[in-house]
Amino acid sequence: MKHVVSVSLDKETVFKIQDILRKKGFRNKSHIVEEAVRKLWEGDK
User: What DSSP state is assigned to residue 8?
Assistant: First the structure.
């Protein structure tokens, strides 16, 4: 089950996310954030 969350990001970060979305084939912005969090979490183990 997915949960809706809201975040505030600076303009540069939003532009980077949009660029990643276009270039890397992610489904949407949520998919990018999920992948980033997963990688951060795995790096902490």
Answer: -
Interatomic CA distance for residues 42 and 1, integer angstroms: 21
**Cβ-based neighbours of 3, under 8 Å, separated by 6 or more:** none
What is the Cα–Cα distance from 18 to 23, expressed in whole angstroms? 9
CB 32 within 8 A of CB 17: yes
Which pLDDT tens digit goes with each residue over 19-28? 999 999 999 9
Contact 34, 40 (CB under 8 A): no
Query: Whole-model pTM?
Result: 0.77
Three-state DSSP class for residue 44: coil
